Amino acid sequence: MTSLLEFISRRSPIVCTGGCVATNQPLATQIGLDILKRGGNAADAAVAVAAALNVTEPSSTGLGGDCFCLFYKAETKKVYGLNGSGRCPAALSLGLLKQQGFDEENPLPPTHAHNVTVPGAAAAWVDTISLFGSKKMSLGEILQPAIELAESGFPVSEVSAFEWKTTAHKLQSPSNKFGAELLINGQSPQHGQLFRNPSLANTFKTLSKHGKKGFYEGRIAQAIVQVVQSNGGLLDHTDLSSHVTEEIQPISTTYKGVKVWEIPPNSQGITVLMALNMLESFSVKEMGHNSADYVHTVSEVLKHSTADCHWFCADSAVVPVPTEELLSKAYSAKQVQHIDIKRASGDNKHGNPFDMGSDTVYFTVVDRHGNACSFINSNYMDFGTGLVPEGCGFTLQNRGNNFSLSNGHPNCLGPGKRPFHTIIPAIATNAATEDLLCSFGVMGGFMQPQGHVQVLLNMVEFGMNPQQAVDAPRFYVEYVEKDQKWHLYLEDGFPGKIVEDLKSRGHLVHWPISGYERKRFGRGQIITKGDWWRLNEIFSESNHVWWAGSDPRGDGCAMGYCRVNDCC
């Protein structure tokens, strides 16, 4: 199957002056652009895109999952954030799981109904519009294009069709009574085949008419509770009706004049910032892009930041997370001392910041006023649990699978607790002026922070434009519990001599990763304001043009428009 998808990219970056949208699906990109042209702002268009992607990529995203949002408001030059992740059912505990035979040694199957946490996306969509929207368009107007897409049908794109097929078994399970809502005659749709989802259209109509209550109470809530509890889960009406989106203060660090903003824990965005802090100690540019020295150094840095994140990142409303300490430059300098430029580390232990002397859709929208919305929405694993609430047209996430079942772990499962979250949107601003530099992200599980780091370095250190930055071959380092070793995956495009060099340093290398398997390296979208990434013209004055790139590993594209007087 992997040979069916060749990786050939020679795209130019999109350049425009009005508004711009970059998503993983052309139909969703067009819908976002239409909202901008009708007077909506970046937040309005982002929610319209989120809904459209629920229609076109139901295996990756939807109302049964969670989302996070970062919003750059041009008027104030400030970055705002929303945590749209849901919580563990109040009746679920480690003790109860132990009684049922589940523990750290015998974890829950990924699709078990106990892994359904409260879907946070619906509330966050509504709150994104309420807090950051233009106030010129109603929720109904914003969701209407997705409603029409679901009712009239759309031709399924290539990568989406592949992913639909590979996980259709979740929908076809005999215990999943309503999985057929996302199938055609019991099978996944093929590339180019028209697919309609009238049930999802009706769900959008209910959300449009009744807002958050239309989702977390009434018919939809009843269907969610029914399908979860009939499959052995404990999610109930109180869990749903008590859910709220959290307004959060984004966290940030600076890297060579660029201030990078991420969602704080329970999101893994802190991994990016810790890595960038450590990388400031190295002459990254002099190493050369994707050289053996570069891949080795960045991989070693990511090992440290990932290990720290996987221990410390948890629901900060329930357990203390030492965010300030982890992001201190002093702690990063200490962690750098453990990196051997000649030898790969096999250590997976987290640091100690107190001992001082450590499946998804991402898209981004900018509007003609200079606002930017960095948005990410996910079911976690493809189709999540696969469970479809009757008559709703979406699947429920399995985000609870990210809880630890170890009682002493900060991220251990607990009643009403939010799990560790992989999905992370990002924004970068000029550290000196707070002007917007870019809105960007890379979707794809635990690859996401590694993708953020690599794409950002591609621009800051190597002067790549946004499209080049997402085109470039990527690498991924992962600790595999089964053999308790770090594995390094290299995308097709790295030369063999670099592979041999990395092996000689002790890396367990997998290469070349090609075809559909490139999903491992994530799919990114990026929009920059101006051409600040040009190496000899950083922070230049030509900042009235939007530049955008969309990852060729997916089905999507970036699109923009120019207003007549914008180019004068």
Q: What would your notes on this structure say?
A:
By secondary structure, the protein is α+β, with helices and mostly antiparallel strands. It folds into two domains: 14-247 and 362-402, no CATH class; 268-360 and 445-540, Gamma-glutamyltranspeptidase, large (L) subunit, C-terminal domain (Serum Albumin, Chain A, Domain 1). 32% of the residues lie in helices and 18% in strands. It has 19 helices and 19 strands. The protein has helices at 26-37, 42-56, 94-99, 121-132, 139-152, 158-166, 168-172, 198-210, 212-216, 218-230, 237-241, 270-279, 284-287, 292-312, 323-326, 329-336, 448-460, 466-471, 496-504, and strands at residues 14-16, 20-23, 66-73, 78-84, 154-155, 194-195, 246-248, 251-255, 258-262, 360-366, 372-378, 426-430, 436-443, 475-480, 485-491, 508-513, 523-529, 546-550, 557-560. The strands form four sheets. The chain has a seven-stranded antiparallel sheet with strand order 1-18-17-13-12-9-8. Helix 1 (26-37) packs antiparallel against helix 2 (42-56) and helix 12 packs across helix 14 (292-312). The longest helix is centred in the middle third of the chain and has 21 residues, at 292-312. The protein is globular and about 60 Å long.
